[in-house]
């Protein structure tokens, strides 16, 4: 079994680690775009061109499925990616977990990039899945970049700024960018101070897309299997190593423990 994941940078680590935990025997292909990142400020057409190049590099390794582990690319590029790769390679997009967050009808905060916050895409998801909940969209400028650089001070500053915009009575927090799942602990700590320790539910996408990828290829989670899966890293189409910043996160260290080189 071989599963590929793509993103502009290391936001794919969360979903890749989820796949690794669910299927330790799976071969993983991580395809990113350090030459073209960040994707967020690009036009939709330009972003789609970059995403197609990254996907083609992964597809050359003949994976059984491809996870688009990037909310921005899923918003703008999923149809052309599917048009080119399916049905030969199932393509699984990443959607913010608004539906499960809103299910209880509580106070929901959606942390996302400024480009996604207020977008027709996100507003459409809110209208479809969160009509019975009170929803606050929280823009997080600079947070994805800080996570990408594994810059703890910048992460702390950007998380604190987003926490200040989050209602104090929030009950559910949607992590609407794959990068944010890598710093969930920091986000939890900042919001604990904001909400005076109230119990919050956090909703990411990593495990859900991992399970969906397995389902699409007729497989199931078997976390007890031997850890035999290897790792291939592609950086703007070139064979490479996990970036050093990846080791700043538990997910990256998990993947690096499987005979991976780190640059």
TrEMBL record:
Keywords: Isomerase. The keyword Magnesium does not apply. PROSITE patterns: ASP_GLU_RACEMASE_1. One of its GO terms (molecular function) is glutamate racemase activity. Transmembrane segments: none annotated. GO terms for biological process: peptidoglycan biosynthetic process. This is Glutamate racemase. The lineage of its organism: Bacteria, Bacillati, Actinomycetota, Actinomycetes, Kitasatosporales.
């Amino acid at each position: 079994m071989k599963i590929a994941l793509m993103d502009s940078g290391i936001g794919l680590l969360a979903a890749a680690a989820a796949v690794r935990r669910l299927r330790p025997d799976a071969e993983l292909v991580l395809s990113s775009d350090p030459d073209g990142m960040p994707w967020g400020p690009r036009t939709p057409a330009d972003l789609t061109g970059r995403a197609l190049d990254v996907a083609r590099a992964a597809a050359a390794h003949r994976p059984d499925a491809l996870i688009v582990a990037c909310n921005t690319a899923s918003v703008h590029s999923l149809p052309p990616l599917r048009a080119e790769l399916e049905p030969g390679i199932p393509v699984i997009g990443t959607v913010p977990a608004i539906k499960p967050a809103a299910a209880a009808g509580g106070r929901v905060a959606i942390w996302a990039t400024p480009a996604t916050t207020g977008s027709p895409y996100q507003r459409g998801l809110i209208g479809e899945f969160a009509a019975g909940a009170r929803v606050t969209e929280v823009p997080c400028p600079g947070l994805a970049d800080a996570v990408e650089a594994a810059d703890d001070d910048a992460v702390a500053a950007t998380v604190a700024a987003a926490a200040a915009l989050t209602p104090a009575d929030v009950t559910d927090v949607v992590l609407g960018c794959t990068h944010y799942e890598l710093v969930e602990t920091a986000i939890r700590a900042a919001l604990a101070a904001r909400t005076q320790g109230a119990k919050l539910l956090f909703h990411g996408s990593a495990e859900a897309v991992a399970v969906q990828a397995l389902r699409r290829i007729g497989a199931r989670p078997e976390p007890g299997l031997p850890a035999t899966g290897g790792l291939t890293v592609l950086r703007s189409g070139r064979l490479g190593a996990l970036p050093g910043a990846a080791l700043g996160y538990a997910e990256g260290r998990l993947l690096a423990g499987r005979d991976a080189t780190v640059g």
